Queue: 2 jobs
Job 1
Amino acid sequence: MKRDVIIACDFNSAEAVYSFLDKFTDVKPFVKIGMELFYAEGPAIVREIKKRGYKIFLDLKLHDIPTTVKKSMAVLSALDVDIVNLHVAGTSEMMKAALEGLTRPDGTRPLLIAVTQLTSTSEERMQKELLINATMEETVAHYALNAKNSGLDGVVCSPLEAGIVAKACGEDFIRVTPGIRFADGDVGDQVRVTTPAKAKELGATFIVVGRPITAADDPVAAYKRCVEEFVN
Ligand code: C5P
């Protein structure tokens, strides 16, 4: 899979996202639509951005009983998105049902990736509150393997975990990594961050970059800097 940069379009209205995307005149970046924009604008925003020619990662992180996830995935698949996701914690039965729901009548489907442990969950809270008696690294590797064995295409993880996931699941298993900051940029609320160049070195397949691009004085230049460091 070719490395690429995905822009997290964390806006709360259609106007805000269109005025942002309209700045990109000579490139069509891969974009991520998350819960905020989807809940604000509904599926219409996905159809419109797709119609404008962008590849879309629809980041809704499904986690429910298998039948509900299967039927919901069929709806998302019909939106013609490129990547969707769910939580490994729903277990293999839910992940397999999701794949069935995603598969279109012609046999094609969006890529399906999984959240292992949220990067906002500390090892201490995972052990105390979720009663997982293992290290974060062991848990992420085990969850990634569950996703792979259920037929999924990859996981969302910290760039710092990309190597462990590649080792457990193979080089072809996709690693999508948020928590990206430029060496000279603001960290904001992210804790474990790496630069685009470091994410490449650590083995990420896609980097998800939000504020370093969306809040930059020149978002197009910031995007191109990410591509320069991570893809080229
Ligand atoms: O602005 P920033 O670059 O921090 O945005 C990162 C994006 O990746 C946000 O949309 C955030 O919700 C998402 N994300 C994350 N950590 C995860 C999963 C998703 O930061 N573990």
Job 2
Amino acid sequence: MEQIQIIDSKNHVGETVKIGAWVANKRSSGKIAFLQLRDGTAYFQGVVVKSEVPEEVFQLAKGLNQETSVMITGEIREDTRSKFGYEIGITGIEVIGESNEYPITPKEHGTDFLMDHRHLWLRSSKQHAVMQVRNEIIRATYEFFNTNGFVKIDPPILTGSAPEGTTELFHTNYFDEEAYLSQSGQLYMEAAAMAFGKVFSFGPTFRAEKSKTRRHLIEFWMIEPEMAFMHQEDSLEVQEKYVAFLVQNVLDNCDHALDILERDKELLKKYTKLPFPRISYDDAVELLKKNGFDDIEWGDDFGSPHETFIANSFEQPVFILNYPKAIKPFYMKPHPTRDDVVICADMIAPEGYGEIIGGSERATDYEFLLEQIRQHGLDEKEYSWYLDLRKYGSVPHSGFGLGLERTVTWLSGIEHVRESIPFPRLLNRLYP
Ligand code: 4AD
Ligand code: MG
């Protein structure tokens, strides 16, 4: 007898098969028991009819506790009443692992309780759906960059240099030296772009940020493309094509997950339309001031209410261009005619999800960059390898970083970034 997965039921209608599963839920009457079964690939219903099975099978079915693992035998049939479309008529049940007093019951639980039980919470259908969206974004990311001539390069996690400022670093011992956990692979990706042309990385990054917002994780995954011989305008085109591609693939391949998440698909479709709108930082500040934000002055960084207002002024993700030099990292290319702004852009997601991409054209001039490193209080010895890139065939180049979890949160339509990663590292949360 063949052992199958629930997701493949459609290929086995009328066959008697085995399925390894967990009992997600159950209800029964005197004559019939319905088991809600899940095996990680999908959920479907198992039906046990008292008059059609040995009495001990019926009694066993009626007594199964939530999350008991079982090996089910039965016949796959069509089930027009369920959205999944198939069910199993159970003839045999073997208990594999008992489950007593499973802590996550169908009733409502508080977030702290659920986060404490994250190792079990992942089994629930909503969390499962979010992880399917995450998996699709990961898959589509590789497809996009592989089919567009990019080479995957892995920057180190243990590093001695800090691209994004020194205040949010995780310090660690590196034998008799001090090292940090990478907050961005960018500087290494610039070196890689000079070796391979178009490159991308995809890995974990760390920020010791003491912020407790719905957008911040301590450990998150970032996709960082870097492109040689490319100016910022062309980089913006890569960015919008990439994000639209992610949205389209989630729509194409996560239909059921989006249903479970009750995500508005018509809204998502709008995000596949290119190009995305662009607004300068200067105009964004004016827009905010005109609309009653008197807490913002030219030169300030945007907070989430500002980003949300700007995003709501457009129907698609929006690029905010050319921020003040003083609030951006040392490596950004200076504006050709203004010395107060740099050539950069953040992409702000719609619906209040905030910044999903930060990117820029990179400074190419050796003397300028050395001066920036000094002005930012960085140790130029630690950056001498990076400065080498400007000594030996420096070329215009641009790149960006997309935050995986913010993108998952947005496309899933969930409230908080902590549900977009299997085991979130948050302020004051290292377990499970
Ligand atoms: O804007 P950031 O800091 O940019 C960089 O690190 C550049 N070096 C990237 C590059 O040009 N190669 O971070 C990029 C993105 C943000 O737009 C956001 O989506 C995400 O990373 N991000 C976070 N996501 C979750 N939690 C945090 N604490 C995050 N910080 C940044
Ligand atoms: Mg940023």
